TrEMBL record:
InterPro entries: HMG_box_dom, HMG_box_dom_sf, SOX/SOX-like_TF. This is High mobility group box domain-containing protein. One of its GO terms (cellular component) is nucleus. SUPFAM superfamilies: HMG-box. GO terms for molecular function: DNA-binding transcription factor activity, RNA polymerase II-specific; RNA polymerase II cis-regulatory region sequence-specific DNA binding.
Length: 78
């Protein structure tokens, strides 16, 4: 299994959780935690979002080097 390269929001969310902006004792539900982080992401100024977009491009380039033959092929099960 090869994971997808992270996008800008995924990197932002991981960093947000790592820095414990919302304490685990307050918010343990990942769904509502994602809503909180999503609101923070939407209110982020464009220059700060650009930093995360750049990090995502670097992550994608590293992913391409590590997995050169990778192609996203979603599996739809019904």
């Amino acid at each position: 299994y090869v994971p997808r390269p992270p996008n800008a929001f995924m990197l932002f969310r991981a960093d947000f959780v790592r820095q414990k902006h919302v304490p685990g004792s307050i918010e343990t539900n990942h769904g509502s935690l994602s809503k909180i982080i999503g609101n923070c992401w939407r209110s982020l100024p464009l220059p700060e979002k650009a930093i995360w977009e750049t990090k995502a491009k670097h992550a994608k380039a590293e992913h391409k080097i590590k997995y050169p033959d990778y192609k996203f092929r979603p599996v739809h099960t019904k």
